[in-house]
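Subject: Sanity check before I submit

Could someone independently write out the structure tokens for this chain? I want to compare against mine line by line before I put it in a report. The sequence has 217 residues.
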Amino acid sequence: MRILLFGPPGAGKGTQGKILAISERIPHISTGEILRDCVERQTPVGKIAEPFLAQGKYLPDDVMLEVIKERLLDHSAANGFILDGFPRTVGQALSLDKLLKELKQPIDSAVYLKLDKGTIMERLLHRETCHECGLSYGPRRTSKKPGVCDADGGILEKRKDDTHDLILSRNKEYLEKTPPVLDYYMARNKLVEIDGSQAASEIANKISKSLVAMELE
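---
Independent answer below. Compare away.
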């Protein structure tokens, strides 16, 4: 199974990606996590990515495609994957299709988590993420002990880009560039739209049902 996860910042893509990774037994590939790790380690890609991430902007298509290509060529993605955060432009979607055709791994489904601006702001301004496992906490899910992850005891931190101005910038960038990508996959009968304001378990259940329905078509 090869799945794309779409949605504005704060829609819950990371949470659903982790749930899907367990149920489908395939890796969850988050481009955001990859790029933030590259920035932290100051790799060549990280040095290119840092100023873009600091402004809430998308990286150039050629840089992103190389990052994705390297990850998909890893043996762990041979039997499928959940791709979160890519493609974000129609150009990237076309390049991804070309790459996946070469790898003989066409996309099965593109899942879009819809969320309104007010909910996005509320979630991200209060979001904390575990430094160890990446689990997120916020208004609807708080840790039992403040600042400590329930799963592994890791320290909870706020992401550097979860500030009011950067959230607005990231959402603006998303609204300007990503909707045509949704149209691209809708035209190919791959798009599934789900209300991202629901509980994580309910969203996961609806995604699972949509995937089963697509497999039966």
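---
OP: Matches mine. For the report I'm noting this point. The chain has a mean pLDDT of 90.
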